Amino acid sequence: MTQGSRQLQAQAQQQLQTLSPQQILVVKLLELPTVEMEERVRAEILDNPALEEGREVTESIETGEELADNNDLYENTQEDLSLGDYLTEDDIPDYKLQERNRSWEAAPEEIPFSDSISFYEILMGQLDMQKLSDEQRDIAEYLIGSLDDDGFLRKGMTTLIDELAIYRGIYTDEQELEEVLHIIQHFDPAGIGARNLRECLLLQLKRKPQSPSKDIQLKIISKYCDDFTRKNKDKIMERLNLSEAEYEEAANELTKLNPRPGSSLGEIMGKNMHQIVPDFIVETEEDGSIHLTLNDGNIPQLRLSREFSDMLYEQMNNKENQNRENTDAFLFLKQKVDAAQGFISAVKQRQHTLMVTMQAIIDLQRPFFLEGDETLLKPMILKDVAERCKLDISTISRVSNSKYVQTNYGVYPLRFFFDDGFTTESGEEYSIREIKRILKDCVDHENKEQPYNDDELADILNEKGYSIARRTVAKYRQQLNIPVARLRRI
Description:
The protein has helices at residues 21-30, 34-47, 59-69, 84-89, 97-106, 119-127, 134-145, 157-168, 174-184, 197-205, 212-229, 233-240, 244-254, 261-269, 306-316, 324-364, 366-371, 382-389, 393-400, 432-444, 454-463, 470-479, 485-488, and strands at residues 51-53, 280-284, 290-294, 302-304, 404-407, 410-413, 421-423, 429-431. The protein is α+β, with helices and mostly antiparallel strands and 490 residues long.
């Protein structure tokens, strides 16, 4: 009996969240620090003749209203010709320019920064020499920007895929992401772009000349990396059937590898020596008042070109000569003016978001900004700031990345103010930073002939009121780069 096959067709309703071009522009500007924002604005001025430096001219709004009333002249075109779209969405209030100028008079005359090549620029220079598609290049730029100071890629693939879709409008998969990351991992220095220590060391080993010792080194790191870092020599020798001489030769070579390739690159090229340009300036007065200023003194103010607006107005009212040439001229002028107005709106939204986010951080961490004492920092996570600002957590994350604030007590990255909390048995809340400080203090004052193991450190913290498990102590110890007890023994 033969069996037939059937094709079934079904409809499914699916809700997808997409970002408009204007939202994508806002997100891209939001993640830029001050220096890069200045470069971006100046590049936009050069690219768009409808955009120029200077205060906004309110007369340009009348042009938009007139244009909205006369869109029927071009109803046969396939584009939306409503210039008023951006103008009516620009409901974010402008910054108080007088206050900003007054604050800059009291601020330092100049905030210098080094012209040394940055870690990011070195890798981008190598990226420019690669033959990639536009999408691959965008992905590579995002991956490079996601590397930490040690040159590691700590974010998971799923997180990166989501962020690329949200912030860059790039819809990719893990396979493509792996392919682009593999390209970055061939950049100098060896080990850059690794996701963990094991991968970092293997990337470096693969570039070394072939030798009997290299084969042993590869086996040690690929199979027993954790044991090697813990100096479990006997276990490795037994498992790999190595003589002591073979092990020592391989170990000596392995210790020459760099576990922090990004850090060493920064030291060579001057990354660690550069002076940071703060994005915010927070001044605390003797009377306890705190003044916040956005450090955009070198970022040009923007406005629509009066000349372009006049030409657009003229084309719009040229009803007697509606030929193809005039229509094309109108569309060109309209496109440039729309782009200029959209960019001005995005810059304003960036300023507003930065200010409300930083103000929320000041409000939540006010004791620190008054005294400058790190122990006064309260537990604070991205969600706390997001709820106070009524913004999305991802937006707060964008603001806090690569941004710095200058205070009376020094310059700090915004990430410095974020830390998880820990609640003691009595209900008192402490930041994880405070617990780490106590842990480090215990290790600094221990008897180095009999250093505390993790169980003993956990007992000490419990006695001080911090009910923390041994594995949590081990995690904090590793984050503080404190070796295990037997490696601290003198």
